[in-house]
Specification:
Length: 154
């Protein structure tokens, strides 16, 4: 059997020292996360992060930079994530957009509010690490990402 990590994308959106977070229910636990989700078959990384941000927040997102690629290890090999974290600009909100079923609300929170929230924990370590990448000033060019449909000659 070939092992494969789960490929996910996340948008790190900052405004006046606060970050756009989604409140979501995961296995009965209320958590905070960036707008994030799985790459779908046939989709580029940039299209995936645009789609996930819209589906989870109702905001249109235009990625400008890659913050980093994070391999989140886990004792359970089925829960290892390869996360592509992006930053960019919101180009507007779609009024009345139906958010994903597991999204309870969106919040603009400071890093301290995320760390010390009285009832919501970050979904995992990748959440705060992505904010740390943003705050470190790392900005990798999107031109380093390539989407290439492959044709096999067999």
């Amino acid at each position: 059997m070939v092992w494969k990590p789960r490929v996910v994308v996340a948008s790190v959106l900052a405004r006046e020292g606060r970050y756009l977070m989604v409140e979501e229910e995961i296995a009965g636990q209320m958590t905070l996360n960036q707008p994030a989700g799985h790459l779908e078959y046939g989709e580029s990384l940039l299209d995936a992060v645009r789609r996930e941000t819209l589906e989870e927040t109702g905001y249109r997102f235009e990625p400008e930079s890659l913050l980093g690629v994070i391999l989140g290890q886990n004792e359970d090999p089925e829960r290892v994530y390869l996360r592509f974290a992006f930053c960019g600009q919101i180009s507007g909100q779609v009024e009345g957009y139906p958010l994903d079923d597991d999204i309870i609300a969106t919040h603009w929170l400071s890093p301290d509010e995320i760390r010390q929230h009285p009832r919501l924990l970050p979904r995992n370590e990748l959440v705060l690490h992505s904010i740390e990448l943003y705050e470190s000033g790392i900005r990798l060019p999107l031109e380093s990402l390539h989407y290439m449909p492959m044709v096999f000659n067999r």
